[in-house]
Amino acid sequence: xxxxxxxxAIFVLIIGLAIFGLVSSVITNPMGVLRNIxxxxxxxxxxxxxxxxxxxxxxxxxSQSSYKRAAKQSxxxxxxxxxxxxxxxxxxxxxxxxxxxxGNPSSLKRKRKxxxxxxxxxxxxKKKDRASF
Length: 133
Description:
Layout (H helix, E strand, L loop, with lengths): L2 H26 L1 H49 L7 H11 L8 H4 L25
Helix pairs in contact: 1-2
């Protein structure tokens, strides 16, 4: 008998004894089993609530408020973008412009909005000293 089959046999024996004990306790004292299950669920629920209470108060609320503030600032800066559903705008544009009609050149060249990205100046000209590594 190798080690793997021996551990599997021990595992099956333990699970079988646990099932036998559970069935016998349900037959002899069903209210005791229900009471024990209720106590276990209550203890797990209390630990879960304590965990949530301490984890939410530290960083999650702060990061959520920071996200909302950044989203509001971004929407003020860039404005609200009106996006039509793809199916409606796609079919309308294809059916009305099938004749090869050219649009107004000024409407085709729209002014680009300035990017919201910023360049961080750094030390670009400084050479790395490879001998110090």
